[in-house]
Design goal:
The complex is a heterodimer of chains A (about 110) and B (about 120). Chain A has about 110 residues and is mainly beta. Helices cover about 0% and strands about 45% of the residues of chain A. Chain A is globular and about 35 Å long. Helices cover about 0% and strands about 60% of the residues of chain B. In chain B, the strands form two sheets. In chain B, strands 2, 4, 5, 6, 9, 10 and 11 form a seven-stranded mixed beta sheet that branches. The mean pLDDT of chain B is about 95. The chains are: A mainly beta (about 110), B mainly beta (about 120).
Chain lengths: ~110, ~120
């Protein structure tokens, strides 16, 4: 199985900040990497697919980069609604593994 | 509306069984690969199983192989997960998710673009 390592586990920030979350995979997955946002009691929401493509309807404050084994999600100009938990996911192979999550806190 | 709605969760004793359902609406269900993902409350997302669009391909996480069975009924626009020999560690919210296959000049991509709200399975005596 491909292991996904996200960092940091917890990220404290303020409204207006720019933050970056990292996701590293145990083997190359080219760009088969997606990012999801999850708020308490809610289903995950797709933000970024194919490492850097913004899902329709998602704010352009979200951006993704990377290929191979190293990926990042950047959120610019943090807004109150951005405080949530973020997960990376690989769709290179089965099982479709997820990172352990990064909680973005005020 | 395009949506997925899970049902069938509940409290079950260790060793018991449950059948989860996921009702799809607003899109052509038979065209999509579908997945189950679970999440222990307060913990991360864990992939459980997938089925291809015509039901001929099934895959499972090692932790559920031999105990869980995924199926679908395109006439009813529904996905199912039969949970047998349940253990305490199967306690989680179970989500169904639609997987999209996208292809353009850059290449192909797979991603989960639609999720249900989940159904809670609690395994306890």
């Amino acid at each position: 199985d491909i292991q996904m390592t996200q960092s940091p586990f917890l990220l404290s920030a303020s409204v207006g900040d720019r933050v970056t979350i990292s996701c590293r995979t145990s083997q190359s997955i080219t760009t088969y990497l997606n990012w999801y946002q999850q708020k308490p009691g809610r289903a995950p929401k797709l933000l970024i697919y194919a490492a850097s493509s913004l899902q329709t309807g998602v704010s352009s404050r979200f951006s993704g980069r990377g290929s191979g084994t190293d990926f990042t999600l950047t959120i610019s100009n943090l807004q109150p609604e951005d405080f949530a938990t973020y997960y990376c996911q690989q769709t290179y192979t089965i099982p479709r593994t997820f990172g352990q999550g990064t909680k973005l806190d005020i | 509306d395009v949506q997925l709605v899970e049902s069938g969760g509940g409290l079950v004793q260790p060793g018991g069984s449950l059948r989860l359902s996921c009702a799809a609406s607003g899109f052509t269900f038979r065209n999509y690969w579908m997945h189950w993902v679970r999440q222990v409350p307060g913990k991360g997302l864990v992939w459980v199983s997938r089925m291809n669009s015509d039901g001929s391909v099934r895959n499972y996480a090692d932790s559920v192989k031999g105990r869980f069975t995924i199926s679908r009924d395109s006439a009813k626009n529904s996905l199912y997960l039969q949970l047998n020999s349940l253990r305490a560690e199967d306690t989680a919210v179970y989500y169904c998710a639609r997987e999209v296959y996208h292809y353009d000049s850059r290449g192909e991509d797979w991603y989960f673009d639609l999720w249900g709200r989940g159904t809670l399975v609690t395994v306890s005596s």
